[in-house]
Amino acid sequence: MILEFIILLFFSIVIYSYLIYPLVIWIISYFNKPTKSTDLKQSVSILLSVYNEEAVIWERVKNISEQEFDFRCLELLIGSDGSKDKTIKILNELQSKYDWIKVYSFSQRRGKALVLNDLVEKSKNEILIFTDANSHFQKDSIKKLVEKFSDNSIGGVSGRLVLEEFQKKDRSSNEEKRYWEYETKIKKAEGKCGCLIGANGGIYAIMRNLYLNFPLNKPLTDDLYLTISILKQGKKFCYASDAIAYENIAPTIKDEFYRKVRFSATNFLTLKHFGFLLNGANALANYCYLSHKVLRWFIPFIIILLPILNIIILPQFGFFEVTIIIQTVFLLLAIIGFLLSQFNIRLIIFSIPFFFLLTNFAIVLGFINFLRGKHSGIWNPTPRDSF
Question: Measuring CA to CA, how many Å separate 377 from each of 111, 218, 321?
């Protein structure tokens, strides 16, 4: 009976994580109404860590310069993390053009998190906005982010990240977009409850007085670390669906796969740093953290164990013949999806199972890298495309 129970438990965890939890948090969010307040905050420091971003940095700054915001209350701090291309030259030209830009060139490459630590120390305004060189804000995005902070119980706000296909012609990213739209709905529901787990790295903001420095010797996932640290301080982390940023998906499945492997390794290190419970956060935030993050990170191992346990018990129980058939069909669909992807052919019935297993395989490799200590806060950016 023990094996049967474990198999049913594993199936229940997968179904709960991907289907039941999103429904539960949506229902809870339906009854959460935003708090009205008139405590408006205006001063903003935008922080940007860059490495070899000559292809997009001019356009990124130009995009920020077009924001519908009072630039007397705004500063943009850009730290070059040992760039070897023309990034610094371009930044110096931009600094001479805009008096609200401050450029810092760090000769030694240390990684994004440590650059952000230095930029925060040099910043002076009450709201910190984090973004990436390949992000593109809508013209009112900063204003929409800042408006949320009129509620003093809110410590952080994530904007909505919209993924665009690389060079607008590659269909290999369709599955990533579909999955991201699914995740966005969960983030929106969590944000309405004030317990968003994992801000969108391309557009989010926190109160400066709540910023906790990244550890010097731990390459953590920066946006996840800051989100959880805000919740642990008893503050809400919300979601501004009208504060929109655009980013291009990695140009190939291979690029996206290795990006997931890298983030998975730092995600496990972040989990180790915080543990399974968030002391200081409320019960709902802990529930979201366990359901949306902790369980998700261990589902790949459940997927590996399920067929093995199912085969062991198969001769004894007819019910489990059905479960092994379901797993076999899903695997076959994924294999066909992989083969079709080699010819850039996308059919949802095949591509979704393939993307699901590929994503979970990336998490497994990330976990192995985490165990081996092969995780780093330093990486090369994926190929960039302009908007």
Answer: 5, 8, 45
Summarised one tens digit per residue, pLDDT across range 294-351 is: 999 999 999 999 999 888 887 666 777 888 888 999 999 999 999 998 888 888 899 8
**Of 68, 194, 233, 237, the residue nearest 142 (C-alpha):** 68
In the block, tokens 């290999």 appear at: 172
CATH of the domain at 65: 3.90.550.10
The answer to whether 317 touches 1, Cβ cutoff 8 Å, is: no
pTM over 0.85: yes
* Cα–Cα distance for residue pair 147/14, rounded to 1 Å: 37
Q: Is residue 346 in some structural domain?
A: no
What tokens does 353 get? 């199972």
> What are the backbone dihedrals phi and psi of residue 191, each rounded to the nearest 5 degrees, phi first?
-65, -35
In a domain, 306, yes or no: no
Q: How many CA atoms lie within 13 A of 61 on its CB side?
A: 27
- Residue written as tokens 């590929």? 358
The CA distances from residue 190 to 137, 198, 227, 239, in Å, are 22, 10, 12, 8
The tokens for 258 are 């290795």
Total number of domains in the chain: 1
User: Count of alpha carbons within 13 Å of 48, Cβ hemisphere only?
Assistant: 28
What are the two backbone dihedrals, phi and then psi, of residue 127, each rounded to the nearest 5 degrees?
Answer: -115, 130
Rounded Cα–Cα distance for residues 373 and 227 (Å): 24
Cβ neighbours of residue 216 under 8 Å, at least 6 residues apart? 114
| Structural domain contains residue 244 | yes
| Distance, CA of 38 to chain centre | 30
Give pLDDT tens digits for 45-65: 999 999 999 999 999 999 999
Q: Residues of 208-246 as b/e, b for ≥16 C-beta within 10 angstroms?
A: bebbeebeeeebbbbbbbbbbbbbbeebbbbbbeebbbb
- State the burial class of residue 295 (Cβ atoms within 10 Å of its Cβ: 0-12, 13-18, 19+): middle
